[in-house]
Structures are given as structure tokens and as C-alpha cells.
Amino acid sequence: MNKEDLFLKIINETIEDNSYLGDDCAYIKDSGLLISHDTLYEDIHFSFDYFTPEALAKKAVLVNISDILSSGGVPLYITISLSGNLDENFIKNFYSGINEIIKKYNIKLIGGDLTGGKKTVVSIAIIGKTTNPSSRKNAKKDYNLYLAGIHGSSAKGLELLQKGIKDFENEFIKAHIEPKLYPEISNALMNNTKDIYAMTDTSDGLFNALDKIKKESGVGFNIQYDKILKRVNDKNLVLFGGEDFGLLIAVSKQDSKILDNLNVPKIGVVTDTKKIIVDNVEIVEDKSFNHF
């Protein structure tokens, strides 16, 4: 068990009412609201060797929007806490990036906090709404498994950046700096599914996303590797590379036509084995990124 899983286990055991924990967002049923919170920490999640303040701002908001989309919702509001060795130029460029993304997704910035610090830290809370939320707990045996997005590209982009390659028109580097999201898929599921459905993003890697749904739903998966969209030949990057921000979705056979009509690839089926099987081989070791 990695440190993050261990810490989450301790939190769940310590908080008496942990009913809101365990998904990409907390779902407030009475109001239909979705709430999430993510933090990006300098030299753990990003480096200014290849991120400008504007690019950092864009990615920080996109990371949070992804949580709302993967919960079957529409993003509405954000608050931003920003700390670091800040100056006027940094603030202007950072919030220019924020402005570009919130305009694109029709989101309102409603508050936040600014403070100094040795390292730059961006912490964003996001609020959205839904009429039909997903949950990692909703996968059922014989559901079909779909995967939106090209996987392995962001991790490949990070590899190139760490080698000193700064071609920001390179498709892999672009995938890492400013990931593509899939609001049209999330909206279609929210508005059209008849049965409960499971969905999560692949921000921490495809295997990690599979493992989260497996544990929360008590299921397994039988997957065809060649059905996964990818532009790299490295299986480790495809299965374990993070920050592609695709959508992993388990839906009933009845609701599969929604994703078929959007040309989302079906990569496998949900089983009752409690194992992640890829091309008839069980994948056990989690090589995903460790935040700690």
C-alpha cells in the first residue's frame, strides 16, 4: 500500500461519518452540488523549468474541472489559494491563464487567498452541479468498460521535458502542459443514462483509475490492450503514466449506445473476479506516480 492509500485509509477510519469520501467529488444530494479540491505543489506536480505561470494556472483549473466532469457534472465556481515567491508579473500572467480557462468553461472565480512562500503552491476548490452523478461504487458485473482519451502521451511529454526538450508544439509535451478534457462525454452520460454508472478520470494513471473502481465496486475487469487509444509504444506509460485526464467509464449494456454514438472506445467488460486482467494477464503491481 502506497502512502496516499495508507493516509486515506487512516482518514476514513478516523472520520466517523466518511460517507462523502471515496469519489472524485463529494456529492451533496440535497442541492445537487459537486465539490472537489486539488493542490499542485512546485517540484512535485510541476516545475518552472517548463511551466510558465500562465500554463500552470491553466492546468491547475483543468485538473479541478476534470473532477467535476468525471463525476457526471457541470463546473460552476472556483476559489483559488496561491502561495509562493510572488510578484506583480507572476500574478498578472497566472490570472490571465485562469481567465482563459474559466471563460472557456463558463466558470466564475468567487474567491481565494494569496500568501508568500518559498515554493509555489496552487490549491483550488471547485463547485459544480449534477442531476445524475456517477460514482466509483456503481460498476456492475457485465457492464461495458469504455475509455475516453489518448493514454501515455502526458507521461511521454514529461519524459521529454525532463530531458531538456522544450518543443511546446510537440504533441506529447502539449498533452502534459494543457490536457484535453471531455465535457461532451460527461454531459451525455449525465443527461441520458437510464442505469447507474461508474466513472473516474485517469489523472493518476489508467491502472490507478481501474484499481479505484475495482475496490469501490468490488469488481474486476477484462481489458483488451489494443483497444486503448495511444500514441506511444511503451505499455508502462500507457497503463501507469499519469495526467492524461481521460475518462474511464463503466455503463450498462442499455446505456452503452450513448458512448458508442460518441465513438468512445470500448476497451473491455466488468467482471466479478476482483482482478484487473489485460490481454488475459493479471496486472498486480501498481507503478503509478506516488505523490509522496
Key descriptive features of the protein:
292 residues, alpha+beta, 60s Ribosomal Protein L30, Chain: A, Phosphoribosyl-aminoimidazole Synthetase, Chain A, domain 2, 2 domains, 24% strand
What's the gist of this structure?
The chain has nine helices and twelve strands. It is α+β, with helices and mostly antiparallel strands and 292 residues long.
Describe what this molecule looks like in 3D.
The protein is of the alpha+beta class and 292 residues long. It folds into two domains: 3-129, 60s Ribosomal Protein L30, Chain: A, CATH 3.30.1330; 144-282, Phosphoribosyl-aminoimidazole Synthetase, Chain A, domain 2. 34% of the residues lie in helices and 24% in strands. The chain contains nine helices and twelve strands. The protein has helices at residues 3-14, 53-70, 88-104, 153-162, 171-177, 183-192, 206-217, 235-240, 256-261, and strands spanning 26-28, 33-41, 74-84, 108-116, 121-129, 144-148, 198-201, 220-223, 247-251, 266-271, 276-278, 281-282. The strands form two sheets. It has a seven-stranded mixed β-sheet, sandwiched between helices. Helix 2 (53-70) runs parallel beside helix 3. The longest helix is centred in the first third of the chain and has 18 residues, at 53-70. The model has no long low-confidence stretch (mean pLDDT 94).
